[in-house]
Amino acid sequence: MRTARVSRATKETNITVEVGLDGTGTVDAQTGIGFFDHMLDAFGRHGLLDLQVDAKGDLQVDGHHTVEDTGIVLGQALASALGDKRGISRFGQCILPMDEALVMAALDISGRGALYWDVRLPFGMVGDFDAQLAREFFIALATNAGITLHVRQLAGDNAHHVIEATFKAVARALRQAVEPDPRAVGALPSTKGAL
């Protein structure tokens, strides 16, 4: 099983993430931000990741540190669980509808973490979640996991739907990319010989 457990403590947050890449989508996310927990649940379920997230942060300030730092720790856990990346499919993509929202995610487990974001989210809250923090989460996730991640909104007006479609589309693309390629057992999917 490809699994990892990563903890990170700062003056702002204390976060532990456990991830299993070959799971069934069992999720227990406790961040203190209800909508974010809902998004992490969707991420794990649609990515078929077994995911445990225990995040305690300075929510009396706002949710920024908790959301961003959860992205950092989850990204580190994904990188650790992937190990040397031999035999993975490496690339994944998904175009996902969520009612009127339509979001495309495409990613490459390249070792070069970066986010390319074209999602129009309004300033404001979705429940107890600042809509602008979705981008911060994915920046932290992509950078720390070593994933080149493109996310593009093709349609949508409702912030809840757009954000949820984003989390689900990235999860589905990640699920494809981490999947073992039965024709490339033990091979590193790179012409450079390194990822």
Automatic annotation (TrEMBL):
Q: Does the keyword Cytoplasm apply?
A: yes
Q: In which pathway does it act?
A: Amino-acid biosynthesis; L-histidine biosynthesis; L-histidine from 5-phospho-alpha-D-ribose 1-diphosphate: step 6/9
**What EC identifiers does the entry list?**
4.2.1.19
Top enzyme class, one word, equals lyase
Signal peptide range equals: none
For this protein, the record's PANTHER family field holds: IMIDAZOLEGLYCEROL-PHOSPHATE DEHYDRATASE, IMIDAZOLEGLYCEROL-PHOSPHATE DEHYDRATASE HIS7
Family from the record: Belongs to the imidazoleglycerol-phosphate dehydratase family.
Name under which the protein is recorded: Imidazoleglycerol-phosphate dehydratase
Organism from which the protein derives: Parvibacter caecicola
